[in-house]
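User: You have something folded?
Assistant:
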Amino acid sequence: MLLRQEMQMKLLDLDMDYFMENIAIGITESREERLSEDEYGYCVWSEQRIRSFLEDNLGLSKCRKIKGRIVTGHNEALFFWQELIIKESLETPFEVVHIDSHADLGLGYLSWTYILDDLLQYPVEERRMQTKYLDCFGQLNDVGIGDYLLYAIAFRWINSLTYCANPNGDKNDYVWETLKDFEEKFIWDKPVENTIQLVCNPDMEFPSYDADKQEKQAYLKNAVKEPEVPLLIIPSIQDVKYDGDFDFVVMAQSPNYTPASADFIMDIVREYIVEI
């Protein structure tokens, strides 16, 4: 058996909106208002159910607290990891267990085209300094709450990703173009493993979803391919089973995706971590 220090590091990445029965969709990143209590307040998990998930499903313990941080927007997780990397507290590449109602892999954002067409052409060590891009509307964008994990993969920080999806939401909310060979296994009610592999071919236009197999193969043949990243998708709560062996924890409040009445969850999570 490998010693703990010989193993890759594992990070727990929580979003407060996982602990809700109803999932908000179509929310803009710039929204400042909290979700309506009338529409969403009733669907927040109870304290007992949250503690049961943290302890029984994730293996967290108040007797074995893990270093971590509570953040507001989920993109702050990326900045937290960068801080740890700079301090040499976190080694790359690492594994991420993402507990969320959204995959945060760029679906609904224009950043994935920038990442594939431009960011990947930078040397790996420079990519984290090249996150800003102009979209097709001429607006300057940076790492967002719904694409920070795709950036982390482009930085080659993540080499294994588990997405524990909210059973009441979409489980395939990722960008098809980021999957290896543009192929995916569909998700129903059992865990499914896909593979993310970012590719860049400056000599060809990116094929559309409906493009024929030959066009896609032609694009891939001469493309520069990034390392493969296994993407395990767990669509049910009962299949989330960990023993608490995380090196760091981060939890996002995600105020534009949660009602204010859910904020007590942050205090519960604080009982299981040492805030740094």
User: Anything to note?
Assistant: The helical segments are 37-40, 47-57, 76-86, 111-117, 148-154, 213-221, 264-270. The chain is about 20% helix and 20% strand. Residues 1-5 have pLDDT under 50 and may be disordered. The two ends are 31 Å apart (CA to CA).
